[in-house]
Structures are given as C-alpha cells and as structure tokens.
Amino acid sequence: MKEYDLDKDFKLNLEGNHANLAGHTYQHEVRVARDAGLLGSLDANQGDKLIGWDIDEYPSNLYETTAVMTEVINNGGIGPRGGLNFDSKPRRTSFEPEDLFYGHIVGMDSFAAGLRVAAAMKEDGYLDDLVANRYASYNEGIGAKIESGEADFKSLEEYALDIPQKDLLAATHSDHLEQVKDTINHYIVRTLAK
To answer: What is the mean pLDDT of residues 177-186?
Structure first.
C-alpha cells in the first residue's frame, strides 16, 4: 500500500484469528500496522489455536484483548473510519439466534474489559516503564551505536569477541517475566473489580 501511495486512502482490517493462523499474536499484527501507520479497524474474531483454520469465534481472552487495546491506546485510537467488528456466524454447536446475541456480548465485554485494563496500565506507565528499562542499554555505549546505525556486523563481531565472559554475565539481567505476568493478572483483577 505504501509503495503505490494507497496508505493515504486505505488502512488494514486485522483479524485475530488470521494472525494466529500466520503464527503471530494478534497484538503483533496490530503493532506492526500501528508502526506502519496502517491500523484501520479490528476484526475482533479469535480462533482456536489448535484447530488450524478460521472458525471466527467471538473473542473472550482477556489477556489478548488487553494486549490489543494497549496497541489501540498507543495508536491514539482505531483508524479514522475504523472500528471493532465481529463476524455473525452460527457455529456447529452454537447456532440459535440467542447464541449470536451472547456471542456479541462476550466479544464486546472482552474488548471493553481489555480497554479498561490497558488504560489503567497506561495511566500508571507500567508497560512504558517496562519497555524503557528493558531497552535502556540502547541509550548509551554499543546500544546507542546500534540504534544510530553506526555499528555494523563487523564492528559488533569485534566488540563481542573482545568482551570477557564474566563481563557478559555481569551485564545480563532478568526480565522477571513471571512477575510481569503476575502484575498484569493483578491489573485485570483490580480493574475489573471496580
């Protein structure tokens, strides 16, 4: 779209289940579109990660909706004419009109909950602080040279070969992933309890 200047007139409609089928997370797809300035709308369906085809389930995973809505908040919203849409299909096991009604409710509730949790984390700066701390080494030294494009593979090879292993080990820090997941759990529980 950028190559033919179509990005000024068209944006992407991203579907969570298509991301899974491509081996990505929905958040990844939304982030790439956001970074490219192409986030248009969200086709909010999820699928079963084990089935391997597009079954267009209504979204109900609060972690996924929180991650996606974090990207939407960081984008300043969904595209100018975009929105959040759900396919309205009967399922083999859920085919009555009432099932479609409740499907839309669970989808809307899941994204509304994700938005509330993402907004709470944004307000506290939680994820922004995590990212800033994780990539702080790119603000100085070899990290800044990589970021600025000053370093190339040859200079990085020379740099890496000259560092004693004890210095590499000393510079290694844990990302504390379990603590991060626990904190996000607490954000979900606390935010939705209000």
So the answer is: 96
